[in-house]
Give the backbone structure.
Amino acid sequence: MTKGFFWTCSFIALGFSWILYVFAVFICPPQMVYFWLIYNPDDQNVHLMWARQAYEGSFFFRDLYTTDPHPGLFFNLFAYSLGLFSRWTGISLHLSYQLFRTIAALAFLFTLSWFSALFLTSEQSRRTFFALSLFSSGFGWIPIVRDVLTGRQGSFYFTDVSPHLTTPEAFSLLSMTVAPLALIGITLSLGFLGLSFASLSPANPLPFVAGAAACGALLAHLHPYAAPPALLALLLFHLTVTLNSKGRERRNWLFFLLTVAPAVAVLVLQAFIFSQDPAFARKAATETLTPSPLIVAGTFGIPGVIALLSLPTLISSIRAGDLRTAVPFFWAVGILVCIYLPVSFQRKMMEGFQIPLCFLATKGLERWSNRIPSLTRPIGLMLIILLSAPSHLAFLGLNGYWLVHNNLIPERRMMPPYFLHRDQLTLLKRLEQEPDRGAVLCNPMIGNYVPVLTGKPVFVGHWAETLDFVPKLREATRILRGEFPVDEAMAFFRRHHIAFALDTFWERLLCGGPTALERYGEIVFQVGEEKLYRIGSKEPER
């Protein structure tokens, strides 16, 4: 595709990915601080929690959102690099995360362009695929419009945009906007599959094999949920190649084994390490299940419909030896199979599903254009995108609404705020300076930020990372209200290694009034109405 088309689409996509962040800067109240997060700050703070430990010099990471004992064997190159970058540059972890997001977006855009050139021979088809992969979405905007018109939330939503469950990891533009680690996984999947296909060339294939193996290993390490669909796709592809091969079966299968061996080895190693860490083993069992096939079909909208209608033609083409279509086709098949496997993390393997679907839709349009030429002309492409992109605008509107209300609306279910008061930040700065590495008792609304901003663990801070979140939240609330006898509270603090407690707007909100932390400790710092307690030092009641 031409440089002009590439950069025009890329600048539009990059601009979209920053709109809400810029909007948040302008609406941030004078006494508040914005942390460069939109959508779901809880999950993004998890990545930053790992990065904070790298910032402090750790190589292996512990889960600071739980006080349950565990060895802390986790390592992630993305979080490690992010922490070192923040330390060396002096840029905050939150802003560094957004810079990394933009770098990942640029890498993805160039890789997607290369992938289109590798598998599509027509300039117009490359443009169609590139544009659809960036800007198309599903039918999720229809329930959102229904809600706006009726003034109440319904019970049925697609997951390209929803007030409850959105799957940004499945879409390029949303991943560029809120999910840099998922975007890296999509980029590595493109590289892994593209270089594997390129290795079939008889002229010097070893550099492509080495490149594919490196992409596979990084993919399995950085985003292991995206690796199984890609590995399954490559297996199905090589089975197809074998059926169409002319005496090169052994050579092709050797390249296949060399390509996938590093990824499989990394997956096995990480599974073993996680099994040795009880905290991670339990978290792996947290259910993130895939919605029904009907919801998944509607989630990908017009490109998904076109891909589905094109299946008979595409399958005939692959059976006739069209290997360029086979790779994206089997990638789509691999994802579709994996997201309905009987495992707890089904939905997480939907990563990048939009891209192979858009490729198959492009091939379908390519064939239909013989009968309806306008389909692949610029005006036809623009019309298809306009009809398939409204969910992205709905995503902007929905997230803008959440930003305006700082997540303090019932349907957000204790999702952490986007802005914190400056006094609370002053309090956390003081907590950061405390040499004691004990855990912090607080409301998870502010507790989600505590590990990132102070490096200290919290008793409750994240709905999934905090093991047994609901009963622990009940216990935290009882402590804050002073409902525990002092001797029981002291034993509780020792059991969970709790040394500090916060008394801020968030804890008072959880209690429905003033806290009773003076029963269990002493104030070590106060700014305005916000207090930091050292707890666990009171004598038992007699």
The chain has a mean pLDDT of 92. The two ends are 80 Å apart (CA to CA). The longest strand covers residues 521-527. The longest helix spans residues 93-119.
